[in-house]
Amino acid sequence: MVSTDIPPGRLRVQAGRLQISGNWTLEHHAALKAAVRANRGVTESADETLDLSDLAGLDTAGASLLVELLGAERVKRIRDWAPDLPAERQALLETVAGALETPLTPERRRSAPLADMLVALGERIHALWQQQRQLLGFMGLTLAALTVSLLRPWRWRITSLVSHIHQTGLNAVPIVALLTFLVGAVVAFLGATVLRDFGATIYTVNLVAFAFLREFGVLLAAILLAGRTASAFTAQIGSMKANEEVDAIRALGLDPIELLVLPRLLAMMVTLPILTFVGMLSGILGGAMVCQLMLDIPMVQFIAILQRDIPLNHFLVGIGKAPLFAFLIAVIGCLEGFKVSGSARSVGEHTTSSVVQSIFMVILLDAVAALFFMEMGW
Amino acid sequence: MSRAEEAVIRVRGLVNRFGSHVVHQDLDLDIRRGEILGVVGGSGTGKSVLLRSIVGLKRPDGGRVEVFGEDLQQLPSRQRSRLERRFGVLFQRGALFSSLNLQENVALPLIEHARLPRADAEALGRLKLALAGLPPDAALKMPAELSGGMIKRAALARALALDPEVLFLDEPTAGLDPIGAADFDRLIMTLRDAMGLSVFLVTHDLDTLYTACDRVAVLSQRRVLVADRLSVVEASDDAWIRDYFHGPRGRAAHRAAHPSEAD
């Protein structure tokens, strides 16, 4: 294939003879293909008029073009009409002709755009419905396994639980604290700007405390964990599934839910309330800092207002949602992991889906809960 | 005969180590034009590492790997990529791109390197798949839908996409049933004859060694102990080689390959 000094492949009809010469290789594919298309008619001639003696280079691409030019039947008989060709060339041409004898174009399904669109829409809706059913089923399965294993303390997996608490909880503290601190400062800024027109900047304190105790503390922590931990759960369980480890667990007579899901679920339910508390504290701290620097409300006064104006039930409303969110995030993350099939692409798809689903569910549930608590007057 | 004896790949004094663990020490090996070279050795003797250092996936810690007379490590990257196009590699588990269907998998190097239009590249891709013994309707399948044997064939088709001169196969028959494995051996021999390939074949399959390989290289004690025709290797008095070829499986494979010798 050292081909630079050898002329590209050529096809010439001269004095009733079809001359095939030069390099019939991949590099000259486009030119050769054009020549083959242009000369299709001339090849009806007899075998004796074909001249391959100047053929320099040949690879499978060139061979397939020769087969296209001469027909598979004739190329298969190459030993009869071109006995002088080197044996390996003959073998290559024969092999390629053999492979091309049956048409290689697979049938593509005919498509009708409108019908396809309807089909796709129907499939999506059906899939959405199935997904919710699966989620409910999986929640039931998990709760059942949880009950069973709670009754058997000797089967609690303390090590695994602690390791997951470490990963999902402790390692997430800095990012949760930083983020809520910044959002707390932003909320205080907003409050200060809007309330200044009414001469009521002192109520910035109430705004920050209210927002963080009831909503933002738990919501921000939950969204962070959904992005950080649900995706990790999906990827971990998904790659185990792809590697048949989940099947191995089943084949060993163990329960993958008990082994893989419960420690993650419990770790999540322990850590999210704690992270929520951290988030509330540092959000309020962010607000307090802005109050101190921008509004000249000293820290002592800030805390005094908190104590006077904010009853405990706001805190309870906020932190009470945390275990519920934790349950949802963990269950969605694990379930998406179990849905992974084989390929690396599937792991990616399900990881995305688990993050989107869990954030969506958390916000949806939070909205419903906000309505409920408002109506109840809590 | 000198052309047949010419080495397309020459490994001299190769050293590979991972941390303090030395895998290869002063390893020499030649791959000659047009031959099928079987590489055997116990688990952990660095067969796959050797393959990876020849094709340039691992930088050797010492020694030279000459490919078509040039040292890969010394070349600028463009010339190196040019040389590497003359290799085809079949990875142990196929390594097909899971987001592309089979004909796209084979067409990818044709589009990227040979700059063929997509339709031509896919037509050539289907030809390669057919050469590797896959039925026409496999061309539109995704790798996840295939059985182990079909994955191996499709990966072979992709390795052959650019008409390489040297084909590297990492345990091509591992995990195939005996019929599929024998078919695969025959396929490799047919393609070698048709396309003039030199083949570097890492294997544990004794039947493959006996039916397909022209020479066998034995990796042991961090180097190539022997690299010669099978009859010579079999006669070696190294303990590991004796166990390998004269154990129950080795004898059975020998009998299957030489039915006339009753022993």
Automatic annotation (TrEMBL), chain A:
Coiled coil: none annotated. It is a multi-pass membrane protein. GO terms for molecular function: phospholipid transporter activity. InterPro entries: ABC_MlaE_roteobac (IPR003453), Permease_MalE (IPR030802). GO terms for cellular component: ATP-binding cassette (ABC) transporter complex. Pfam families: MlaE (PF02405). The chain crosses the membrane at residues 135-152, 172-195, 207-226, 265-295, 315-335, 355-374. Keywords: Cell inner membrane, Cell membrane, Membrane, Transmembrane, Transmembrane helix. It is found in: Cell inner membrane. Belongs to the MlaE permease family. This is Phospholipid/cholesterol/gamma-HCH transport system permease protein. It comes from Halomonas campaniensis.
Automatic annotation (TrEMBL), chain B:
InterPro entries: AAA+_ATPase, ABC_transporter-like_ATP-bd, ABC_transporter-like_CS, P-loop_NTPase. It holds the Pfam family ABC_tran. SUPFAM superfamilies: P-loop containing nucleoside triphosphate hydrolases. Residues 9-246 form the ABC transporter domain. SMART domains: AAA. One of its GO terms (molecular function) is ATP binding. Gene3D superfamilies: P-loop containing nucleotide triphosphate hydrolases. PROSITE patterns: ABC_TRANSPORTER_1, ABC_TRANSPORTER_2. Keywords: ATP-binding, Nucleotide-binding, Transport. It comes from the Bacteria. PANTHER family: PROTEIN TRIGALACTOSYLDIACYLGLYCEROL 3, CHLOROPLASTIC (PTHR43023). This is Phospholipid/cholesterol/gamma-HCH transport system ATP-binding protein. It comes from Halomonas campaniensis.
